[in-house]
Amino acid sequence: MRQLVLVLPLVLMACTEPQQQNKVSTAAVEVTVLKEAFVMPGLNRSRQVRLYLPPGYGTSDKSYPVLYMHDGQNVFDNATAYAGEWGVDETLNDLAASGQLELIVVAIDNGAEKRMTELNPADHAEFGKAEGKAYVEFIANTVKPYIDQHYRTLADAEHTGIMGSSMGA
Description:
169 residues; alpha/beta; five-stranded mixed β-sheet; two-stranded antiparallel sheet; globular
């Protein structure tokens, strides 16, 4: 059985290349792309959000912890990943089946050419003015409230995490 900790940090390069059209989708049925446009206040752009719900979500009334992940294109699907998907959905399905872990994952797509500034907390001579504070506020004030309102979450800090890889970490 794969461990979640071993799967997530695999992609260590910039994740800004466009999707290759010949890749086959590998996303599990538990993954959906939210249709809502998530506008990033103060940055004049929006982000696509992908959502993983645990296998038993639809048949239970249980609430779940939530993990927010950066570079959403890479989290679940080889068809959208920069250099191969991270396998988060498959790993979590295995963990749920063995009774070890059930959680919701909210994967926020990166900003392609804006990725380095959005994830950076400090201005950088090569990459430009930092937008990290606005990006974190976007997650905390736009994405998280939406998820907590529309899905059965354990919304407190103890049951909320954030994770990324490379610059997103």
